[in-house]
């Protein structure tokens, strides 16, 4: 029996033919305190990758508490300790997922997705096609090795 657990048009079919519902993965990561938005990509690709934005308020508080020196959210997005923090959440999620639906690579973006910059709909869902086009070079880079 086939059970669709997501919006059918958003289902990712990876290079191996496995169907993956990206919202389940995205929502699990967005439930963490330091992640604001996530877009998982991997349609017709060998593995999944993710674009991740930070919850600016929570990550700034965490950074101050941890003694991380920064002057902007862009700096935090590039910070190795912030990346390790996000990696921990990705690893925790991957531990609960079958290998074909685990996120192999990700990027922490310097700014949150928004309606003004075009990545979000009025109901705050990620516009996948637009966001994939906007970050095409970054996404393609995940697969170039």
List keywords for this structure.
alpha+beta; 6 helices; 5 strands; two-stranded antiparallel sheet; GMP Synthetase, Chain A, domain 3; 145 residues; 3-stranded mixed sheet
Strand and helix map with partners:
Blueprint: E1 12-13, E2 19-20, H1 22-30, E3 35-41, E4 48-54, H2 56-66, H3 73-78, H4 80-95, E5 103-108, H5 128-134, H6 136-142
Parallel strand pairs: 4-5
Antiparallel strand pairs: 1-2, 3-4
How far apart the termini lie comes to 37 Å
Helix content: 25-40%
CATH-defined architecture: 2-Layer Sandwich
Overall domain count: 1
Note the total helix count: 6
Number of DSSP-assigned strands:
5
From the alpha-carbon coordinates, what is the Rg to the nearest angstrom?
15 Å
Spatial order of the strands forming the largest sheet: 3-4-5
Describe the structure.
This protein has 145 residues and is of the alpha+beta class. It has one domain (8-142): ANL, C-terminal domain (GMP Synthetase, Chain A, domain 3), CATH 3.30.300. 39% of the residues lie in helices and 17% in strands. It has six helices and five strands, in the order ββαββαααβαα. The chain has helices spanning 22-30, 56-66, 73-78, 80-95, 128-134, 136-142; strands at 12-13, 19-20, 35-41, 48-54, 103-108. It has a three-stranded mixed β-sheet with strand order 3-4-5, sandwiched between helices. It has a two-stranded antiparallel sheet with strand order 1-2. The longest helix is centred in the middle third of the chain and has 16 residues, at 80-95. The radius of gyration is 15 Å and the shape is globular. The N and C termini lie far apart (37 Å). The mean pLDDT is 93.
């Amino acid at each position: 029996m086939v059970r669709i657990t997501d919006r059918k048009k958003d289902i990712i079919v990876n290079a191996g033919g496995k169907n993956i519902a990206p919202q389940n993965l995205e929502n699990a990561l967005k439930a963490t305190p330091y992640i604001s938005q996530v877009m998982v990509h991997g349609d017709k690709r060998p593995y999944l990758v993710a674009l991740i934005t930070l919850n600016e308020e929570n990550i700034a508080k965490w950074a101050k508490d941890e003694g991380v020196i920064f002057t902007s959210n862009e700096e935090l997005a590039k910070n190795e300790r912030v990346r390790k923090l996000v990696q921990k959440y990705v690893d925790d999620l991957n531990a609960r997922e079958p290998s074909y639906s685990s996120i192999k690579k990700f990027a922490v973006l310097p700014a949150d997705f928004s309606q003004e910059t075009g990545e979000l709909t009025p109901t705050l869902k990620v516009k996948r096609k637009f966001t994939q086009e906007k970050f095409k070079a970054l996404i393609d880079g995940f697969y170039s090795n």
